[in-house]
Amino acid sequence: MVPALLLLSALPPVLASLAAESASGFAGSNVSAIYPPAGATITTDESYFPDAEQVGYAGPTPTGAEAEAVATAPVAALNTDAYPLVVAQTPYSGTGVPFQVIRSWGNLSPWFSVGSGEFGLPSADPQIPSGCELEQVHLLHRHGARYPTEGSAPSTFAETVQAAATGSGFSAIGPLAFLNTWTYKLGAEILTPEGRQQPFDLGIAFRVKYGQLLNGFTDLPVFRTTSQNRMVESAIHFAAGFFGVPDYQTSYHQEIIIENSGSNNTLAPWSACPNANDDVAGDLGGYASGNWTQIYLNATVPRLQQYITGLNLTVNDVYAMQQLCAYETVALGYSQFCGLFTEEEWRGFDYAIDLSFWYGNGPGNPAAAAQGIGYVQELVARLTRTPLTIFNTSTNATLDGSNITFPLNQPIYVDATHDNAMSYIITALNFTTLAANGPLPVDHIPAYQTYHVHDIAPFTSNLVAQVMSCSGSASPTEETNSAATGPAPYIRFLLNDGVVPLTGISHCETPDPNGLCLLENFIQGMQERIQEVDFVYDCYANYTPPALTEDTIIDGRMFQ
Ligand SMILES: *[C@@H]1O[C@H](CO)[C@@H](O)[C@H](O)[C@H]1NC(C)=O
Ligand SMILES: *[C@@H]1O[C@H](CO)[C@@H](O)[C@H](O)[C@H]1NC(C)=O
Ligand SMILES: *[C@@H]1O[C@H](CO)[C@@H](O)[C@H](O)[C@H]1NC(C)=O
Ligand SMILES: *[C@@H]1O[C@H](CO)[C@@H](O)[C@H](O)[C@H]1NC(C)=O
Ligand SMILES: *[C@@H]1O[C@H](CO)[C@@H](O)[C@H](O)[C@H]1NC(C)=O
Ligand SMILES: *[C@@H]1O[C@H](CO)[C@@H](O)[C@H](O)[C@H]1NC(C)=O
Ligand SMILES: *[C@@H]1O[C@H](CO)[C@@H](O)[C@H](O)[C@H]1NC(C)=O
Ligand SMILES: *[C@@H]1O[C@H](CO)[C@@H](O)[C@H](O)[C@H]1NC(C)=O
Ligand SMILES: *[C@@H]1O[C@H](CO)[C@@H](O)[C@H](O)[C@H]1NC(C)=O
Fold first, then answer.
1. Does the keyword Iron-sulfur apply (predicted)?
2. Is the pTM of the predicted complex or chain greater than 0.90?
């Protein structure tokens, strides 16, 4: 249950001073490796290594039946481990489930299964409820673990360290002594090795849980992603896990939607929403997390400063060190930055990311629902098997207008996306229970919080819509079910295995212990949501967003 633990505590100052030394000139410099190493002689004569077909003798190769463990197993398989990552765990002396550093990195945490109780449905389970039969599944997943954005805070911190090392020099001791010889080993943007494993594992899990639905295909499946390198590679790793290697190459069609400014792309919708990228709606997340960071790291700066001379730390440096803990861990398997921080500082970091998403990409942002609504239009088209004919949001008319690139008869839909898009889409879907504790304060962590980015958009976060047919004996509430005669189609959503209540959506208000809503009611709710979200105004109008302290937006739309 608990990932690899390593108890570290800061060295006592006396011992620490024994380790004192000066920074090397290379401290903070970039290091990267190209494989195969330069100068390697690569044998080009493939005749030494005939492939499997040429060698032959493969042995018997009969296949078995498709699995449907989401219905046949008595309990759900859950994702609780982050092998092979090792994380320095802060000392913990409380009782109950230990605080886990690796789960407090917001969108930089690996994904873990979330209990349904986290979202308010303690008795719900990812397994198909008895009396129900699975008919269709829609998966939206984030890419796997990645290197930082090019030129962002972690590399800026490395430049600061390098400038100090090559300037008048610095000297770090005790818990910071490693900085004397630390180098920056992270690339930018692309997947890390762990980031390849996550979508691959998700693909395998999806085959085991939902493979049976493949029997209902009449053509090869079309799965979608966007054009960025990490997006394409995540999608392919998912497919490699789902179909197997090398079979994935001939088992499905990979649709790659252009992600670039000016492109319509429901899986990267900001390029079709100018306000998301300018000071109308684009700054709020950074302001909110920036204000909070000044507060929660205020005492951390002097605490760490006592271990380093010749380099004056700022709040931004220390925030970058927390990010480096997460990025180095998911890239290199371990990071010495992780052991520097207390549980309270990690809770502060997690909350800084909650603020960044709430105001920047979530319920508190005036252009968030508008950016997610294109995917909702696509979902309704798929659920109703009705072709899209009007393209008035981030949908691409060329792709979504064709039944080849936008088929409506698939039992399984798989779309890969980004963290912010997951948040936009969840906001557009009106999962208001996640926003139940209202606008997030920028000066303290509220005692009761329903909005956690580590549950919404961690690496390879996955949102699954299960469409199923349930008979009268199933668990749907009697009230909704009595109206139906015989089996009726229902839908529910699992966010990282946690069942999400749909009660904030019009026509799905009746609580259901399994999170189910009648499919036709859900569709009606989404059709109303599509009317309610003013894409043109929220994305294009020149309005002034509310000041942070007065931003009472809770469903991602600008007041009008
Ligand atoms: C590391 O490389 C990036 C470009 O790849 C550059 O912008 C940055 O300044 C370099 N940092 C250092 C410390 O040399
Ligand atoms: C829509 O997608 C097609 C096919 O990839 C592409 O050629 C076109 O530029 C896209 N249009 C927009 C507005 O994104
Ligand atoms: C704090 O928020 C205000 C807007 O309310 C913004 O102008 C300011 O830049 C923010 N401070 C930081 C450090 O991000
Ligand atoms: C940071 O700490 C200093 C010294 O204790 C204090 O004067 C200042 O107000 C604090 N700033 C914030 C943003 O809490
Ligand atoms: C760090 O700050 C102190 C006090 O403001 C100043 O005297 C010193 O020159 C600074 N050191 C560096 C390396 O900037
Ligand atoms: C792109 O989106 C805009 C805004 O909704 C729309 O006017 C335009 O027709 C779309 N273009 C394509 C090719 O989908
Ligand atoms: C796709 O559209 C074409 C032309 O509009 C039509 O002939 C064909 O039957 C459609 N295919 C499916 C699977 O709906
Ligand atoms: C979406 O949620 C908002 C805020 O709770 C609510 O006012 C609105 O009626 C909901 N809309 C739909 C269509 O569910
Ligand atoms: C887009 O078109 C659909 C279908 O006519 C309509 O229901 C919806 O309100 C329109 N949305 C916008 C933002 O114009």
1. no
2. yes
